[in-house]
Specification:
The chain is mostly helical and 225 residues long. The protein has one domain. 80% of the residues lie in helices and 0% in strands. It contains 9 helices and no strands. The longest helix is centred in the middle third of the chain and has 32 residues.
């Protein structure tokens, strides 16, 4: 009975947080700073509050370094960055990416003038926040309660679907579906890194380089580079 209550609460926290962020991204569309504060409250504060009542969830353990984590991460970081930037350069003649800058400006007020600051936040802070929530909290907690298969699937799927509202209007349907598939696969990889290394540092570093690749594309689209 206890495990069922824990499972229901964790699933509810993840689903509710993602739904609220979907409403914020797709309907309310506040400025990027306000959106970031809301995300911090949902993705950081809610798991911390839950951990106060469930002592089996040790969030501090997610930040304990392990040996060889850096080596594992570096083997993935550079190739991933090259794949993302190289993929854009190869596909920009096939797919239309021009709507992204307009959607960012209209939706959350991100423009070429403030994109440098936004990109720093996305790469360093936002990536850590998502790793803490989707992998450190959701995946590892669910794995303890339900087993690996469900934990992998739910965490990766919720991570991918969480991005849907913010990406509406960015891409054509085929590219949109391709991006969702990529996010799901990325979630599986990040889960594996968390499972193997037993902390969020490795997946955070890899996630950071993925965001660096995406931000590099952003710099190109905004005409900064």
């Amino acid at each position: 009975m206890k495990n069922k209550k824990q499972l229901a609460l964790i699933l509810s926290i993840v689903i509710i947080a993602c739904v609220i962020m979907a409403i914020v991204d797709g309907i309310i569309q506040p400025g990027y700073a306000i959106k970031s504060v809301i995300k911090i409250i949902l993705f950081f504060t809610l798991p911390v509050i839950y951990s106060l009542f469930d002592r089996e969830v040790d969030l501090k353990a997610l930040f304990r370094p392990r040996k060889n984590n850096l080596k594992t991460a570096l083997c993935l970081c550079i190739p991933l960055y090259i794949i993302i930037v190289g993929g854009y350069l190869l596909l920009r003649g096939v797919f239309d990416f021009s709507a992204i800058t307009g959607a960012l400006a209209d939706g959350v007020g991100v423009t070429g003038k403030n994109f440098v600051f936004v990109s720093i936040y996305i790469s360093l802070i936002n990536s850590l926040l998502e790793e803490f929530f989707f992998r450190g909290f959701a995946f590892l907690s669910l794995k303890r309660l339900t087993g690996r298969g469900f934990a992998y699937a739910f965490s990766s799927l919720s991570f991918a679907l969480y991005h849907v509202a913010m990406m509406i209007g960015w891409f054509s349907l085929p590219l949109f579906m391709l991006m969702l598939a990529g996010l799901f696969i990325g979630g599986v990889i990040f889960n594996y890194l968390n499972e193997r290394c037993e902390n969020v540092y490795t997946s955070w570093l890899v996630h950071m380089f993925a965001n660096l690749g995406i931000n590099t594309v952003g710099f190109i689209l905004f005409g900064i580079i």
